[in-house]
């Protein structure tokens, strides 16, 4: 794939498939598919997975996402090696890609940590498979899900960069990029006006806020 157009088409198609995997993972397509088939074995597997959700190994879709992430990390390392650090950091999309890959790697590490903690608790004779509402707020499984959601946002934002080749969206992105400072100035003026009205409303309604607070706590 030495022709730039062919390389762009292949990379864009692969990335769109990666986004499709992210959608499938967020919608729990594997579970929905097993429910739709509805055999006794699959329904029993769904029940077992729901009871052993904490620290469970990745499924087929999540494993495919992990392979894509490894490929993305290798591509970024190769690009950094070929272009050098300064040229690599000059393009902000490279920084976004680096940050996104770090989020995915952190998510993978936390999932492995959750699995290790569960295995250690089982070896100690403790009850490891608790209902989700009884998990620790800082359980690695919960943190990994939050980081995975944040990484998904950055992954879908990458489509903005891909759509820059579009004859309609490309010039629009350039125009918006040149207008960033003007937009910031507008929001600064808007914030001043909003703050002025907020001060006036606070002067009028502060007494009722205290009354509502007392009524809320007193029942």
TrEMBL record:
One function term, GO molecular function aspect: store-operated calcium channel activity
Residue span(s) of domain Ion transport: 53-207
Keyword annotations of the record: Ion channel, Ion transport, Membrane, Receptor, Transmembrane, Transmembrane helix, Transport
Biological-process GO terms, alphabetical: regulation of cytosolic calcium ion concentration
Subcellular location: Membrane
Classification via InterPro entries: Ion_trans_dom (IPR005821), TRPC_channel (IPR002153)
GO CC annotation: cation channel complex; plasma membrane
Pfam families documented for this protein: Ion_trans
Membrane-spanning segments: 59-77, 98-118, 146-165, 186-209
Membrane topology: Multi-pass membrane protein
Stated name of the protein: Transient receptor hypothetical-gamma protein
């Amino acid at each position: 794939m030495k022709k730039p157009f062919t390389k762009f088409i292949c990379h864009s198609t692969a990335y769109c498939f990666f986004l499709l995997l992210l959608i499938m993972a967020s919608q729990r397509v594997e579970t929905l598919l097993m429910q739709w088939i509805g055999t006794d074995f699959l329904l029993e597997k769904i029940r077992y997975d729901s009871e052993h959700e904490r620290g469970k190994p990745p499924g087929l879709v999540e494993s495919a996402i992990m392979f894509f992430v490894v490929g993305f990390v290798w591509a970024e390392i190769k690009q950094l090696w070929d272009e050098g650090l300064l040229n690599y950091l000059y393009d902000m999309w490279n920084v976004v890609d680096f940050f996104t890959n770090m989020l995915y790697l952190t998510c993978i590490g936390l999932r492995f940590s959750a699995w290790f903690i569960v295995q250690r608790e089982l070896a100690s004779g403790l009850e490891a498979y608790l209902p989700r509402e009884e998990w620790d707020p800082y359980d690695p499984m919960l943190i990994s899900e939050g980081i995975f959601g944040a990484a998904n946002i950055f992954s879908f934002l990458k489509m903005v960069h891909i759509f820059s080749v579009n004859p309609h969206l490309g010039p629009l992105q350039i125009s918006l990029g040149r207008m960033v400072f003007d937009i910031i100035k507008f929001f600064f003026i808007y914030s001043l006006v909003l703050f002025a009205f907020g001060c006036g409303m606070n002067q009028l309604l502060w007494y009722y806020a205290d009354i509502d607070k007392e009524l809320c706590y007193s029942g």
